[in-house]
Amino acid sequence: GHGDITAHQQPSTATEESEQCSTCEFRQHSKLMRLHAIKSQILSKLRLKQAPNISRDVVKQLLPKAPPLQQLLDQYDVLGDDSKDGAMEEDDEHATTENIMTMATEPDPIVQVDRKPKCCFFSFSPKIQANRIVRAQLWVHLRPAEEATTVFLQISRLMPVADGGRHIRIRSLKIDVNAGVTSWQSIDVKQVLTVWLRQPETNWGIEINAYDAKGNDLAVTSAEPGEDGLLPFMEVKISEGPKRIRRDSGLDC
């Protein structure tokens, strides 16, 4: 009797193995197709026919200056599948750092007049602690100016309207831009973020403006048609302290 059972089980085991093999092959194939699609899109954005011969380290240095490319990579989970640990990297001292992206949301109505401004409030992961911040940058996308001009990127602290003094400017940056060109701009907000983390009750959000010489505000703070993915975001790099095991990379949003 036992021999019959064994004989019947063997074909089903073989079938399961072949099914697992085909699943693995399918996953591998789709992964390769996905990588090919990413490479094609990145080369297309850079207007290149083939990848330049540069090292991975140089690529790492270039990417933070090009957030749209970084978003493209994140979109396809190149940095790791379903990992929530953030983008991990190790520096020379073997302390692990983590990049955390925080997207802007609409601030509390208590700081708005006629439902404005619609941006920007940032809430932060408990991982982000004041004494662990290595770098904090606010990224803002600018619409094209009609002519070459100087743009003043301004960040103002939002306060409840009842308290008065809604526009307290806390950072400003002078930027020269060419006509008809969109661009991502970053501004250091480490000090602002440190204050928010130590005194959370002061974080009502910020208003972002980028005025050209004619007084036009070029900052994308609410998405018009075709502007998806261009809203402000904060990129925070935190230190994790020495690590023995390097974890899988990913992105924490």
UniProtKB/TrEMBL annotation:
<feature type="compositionally biased region" description="Polar residues">
    <location>
        <begin position="7"/>
        <end position="20"/>
    </location>
</feature>
<dbReference type="GO" id="GO:0008083">
    <property type="term" value="F:growth factor activity"/>
</dbReference>
<keyword id="KW-1015">Disulfide bond</keyword>
<dbReference type="InterPro" id="IPR001111">
    <property type="entry name" value="TGF-b_propeptide"/>
</dbReference>
<keyword id="KW-0339">Growth factor</keyword>
<feature type="domain" description="TGF-beta propeptide">
    <location>
        <begin position="23"/>
        <end position="226"/>
    </location>
</feature>
<keyword id="KW-0202">Cytokine</keyword>
<feature type="region of interest" description="Disordered">
    <location>
        <begin position="1"/>
        <end position="20"/>
    </location>
</feature>
<comment type="function">
    <text>Acts specifically as a negative regulator of skeletal muscle growth.</text>
</comment>
<comment type="subunit">
    <text>Homodimer; disulfide-linked.</text>
</comment>
<keyword id="KW-0964">Secreted</keyword>
<dbReference type="InterPro" id="IPR015615">
    <property type="entry name" value="TGF-beta-rel"/>
</dbReference>
<protein>
    <recommendedName>
        <fullName>Growth/differentiation factor 8</fullName>
    </recommendedName>
</protein>
<dbReference type="GO" id="GO:0005615">
    <property type="term" value="C:extracellular space"/>
</dbReference>
<dbReference type="Pfam" id="PF00688">
    <property type="entry name" value="TGFb_propeptide"/>
</dbReference>
<dbReference type="GO" id="GO:0005125">
    <property type="term" value="F:cytokine activity"/>
</dbReference>
<keyword id="KW-0165">Cleavage on pair of basic residues</keyword>
<keyword id="KW-0732">Signal</keyword>
<comment type="similarity">
    <text>Belongs to the TGF-beta family.</text>
</comment>
